[in-house]
Amino acid sequence: MSLRRTDILIIPGTGLLTDAYGLLSWGPYNLFKWSLIAKVCRCKLLFVSIGAGPVYGTLGKYFIKSMLSLADFRSYRDSSSKRYLENIGFRASNDRVYPDLVFSLPEAVIPHQGTKNGRRSIIGLGLMGYAGKYSVSRPSNEIHLAYLDNVVEFVRWLLAHEYDVRLLIGDVGDRRVTQEFRSFAEGAVIGA
CA–CA separation, 82 vs 28, rounded Å? Predict the structure, then answer.
């Protein structure tokens, strides 16, 4: 991707401001690098409805605070993300909170009546490779297995209450956890 002759680089939504997945890939270093390139190419840089935290390392905090300071505009998806950044030393007091699409879905568009034609309601379930990435402690396989166990219990409850469940993925990287969930669910005999 080239930013030459580009007017604006928009980094939208989600919880990108974390080093829970490491510094590289879509971690703080890569975002900082693209932010710096945008400014060198004289692009406007906008962070729109961003989620933040946790940030474990000093280097992660440095990259996140540096990239945000380069921005022409910043907003956060929730007040806790804004507070989190302020708690790690970033001055966000003049920034705004604008919920992203998920956090701002108007209640009026959510159906409250029963399903039509006798069909069961369908619940979309997004899985993530969770190993305690958003907790105070470091990620672990034990936490990941407990997460999968809790999700299986939740799906079991949904099925018992006449809901159908569809697994959703938001990224190619989510395929692994979907396969792990299916194997875990089969072992737990989810319909029992």
Answer: 17
Write the DSSP string, 5-53: T--EEEEESSS-B--TT-SSTTSHHHHHHHHHHHHHTT-EEEEEEE-B-
pTM of the model: 0.62
Report how many helices (DSSP H) and strands (DSSP E) the chain contains, helices first: 5, 6
What is the per-residue pLDDT across 117-159, written as a single tens digit (0 to 9) for each? 667 888 888 887 665 555 555 556 777 788 888 888 999 899 9
- Measure the CA dihedral 102/190/164/128, to 10°: 20
Category of 114 on φ-ψ map: left (φ > 0), alpha (ψ -120 to 50) or beta: beta
Residue 133 in contact with residue 18, Cβ under 8 Å? yes
| Per-residue tokens: 162 | 């006449």
Q: Is 111 helix (H, G, I), strand (E, B) or coil?
A: coil
